[in-house]
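*** Residues and shapes ***
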Amino acid sequence: MVTASPFHAGELAAQRLTGATDAASAGGAFIRDAMPDQHRRFFAALPFLVVTGGDGDGQIWLSVLEGPEGFAHSPDPRHLSMAATLHHDDPLAASIARGGPVGLLGIELATRRRNRLNGILTTTSQGYLLEVVQSFGNCPQLITTRVWHRDASHLPGPVRISDRLDAAQTARIAAADTLFIGSGYMSEGKGAANGYDASHRGGAPGFVRINDDRSLQIPDYPGNSFFNTIGNLIGDPRVGLLFIDFDTGSLLHLTGRARIDWHPGDSHDPDARRMIHVGIDQVVDRPSALSLRWQRPSGDGLTLNVIDKVVESEGITSLHLASADGAALGHFQAGQHLPVSLDIPGRQAPVGRSYSLSGDPAAPTWRISVKREERGIASRFLHDAVRVGDVITARRPQGDFTLPPGERPLVLVSAGVGITPMLSMLHALVTDQPQRQVSFVHAARNGRNHAFAGEAADLVSRGGRMTRLVHYSAPENEDDYRTFGRTGRIGAADLLALPTADDADFLLCGPAGFVAEIRAGLESGGVATGRIHLETFGPAG
């Protein structure tokens, strides 16, 4: 179930300071006191987990808990069991062995998926058991794709401890495109918001600026508007950092205190909304601490030509893409997204984003449809600068927001640009399962903002057992009632009233607040959690 009060005073203060109260309040419905089945399977498939907590002196540390495939498993939605322990020279090992509150991050670098847990850890005969207090997903921003393997012959080197960075450590941080940050919040009582948070930060190499051997600064980019880390640091400046050397498995642990610059006018990174300044108290360097090694994937890079550019609605534009060598691009699973890498003038490194594929999965070319965000680096570039004939670099389609197998009825529910994965699903269903019962339900503000109205209507008409329901929240005089059927917002009650609701799988895509509200209403109406499938989005940037 959804936790009653997911945010503490520091997080709420950060949300107010940044004007993100409404977005965070809507997204807060995704913070739960148990893991959905999708997250349980996700954690169980990982070869490592990032964990954070406090030591006996109150310092915050992060580390990596690694084990063989399947070392983590979830016996029930409220618990995660881990058959592994931290090495005795790990700065977090002693406090973890005593048990207590921790933050846990699961991240799958190959697919750029990540999910987080906060809870209470206890030791077991096999390792650790986490009782979940908060569970939520994270959007896959600024994650560098890597695939892992193990070095069976790895031998950890001697640990080095100091109160400052040496030249080699400084060079490692300067070259890093990934770090993990740990923070905590403790108040009177045992509120769900108490505890620790482990989070990922990424950027182009050099995104972490080193001031001197005892201080550095980390840019804070737009995220999910929860402000878990920033909110923690408002109340408690203690912070932990972890840098992984992906080539050698070495871990560089830092602990210190943080200060937030809310208006970094003279920043080394123009994309930073805030800057986290960290004063270093202690450094623990553990060479070859892990048996895991990572490398950038080879063979999945694609060079795509923009062969057409179509304005679909006010604010949404489609790019039609073909392989630069003229070959068919191949099929993708309906609902998947395309990771792209954009060379934007003035940027030190390519800007990565993911956009849902909105066309027919069986077509020889692909289509992505992008909403323009006024402060979005990538979306403004795609809308304003990219032209037919330009080249875009991408990787193979990814994502698990796909059609459930079988013949169970489907209810596809979208809002705004959330229609994009639904379109590819409609294409696939018309081709592969024309007799499957499908209800397509879409919300738009009005006709000017309603992308793909004609295409969706045509697809539904071609399906043998498909229906369409469109809501306009603010229709204009010129809008045709034959295009939309209802005025006002879509609610769970509208979906539960559909003839197939009792037996259907519901697929939801749209802004976080929209999806959270619909999901909560469906669950309150008796729809099993396993029959609700989600994809959310925020500003793509």
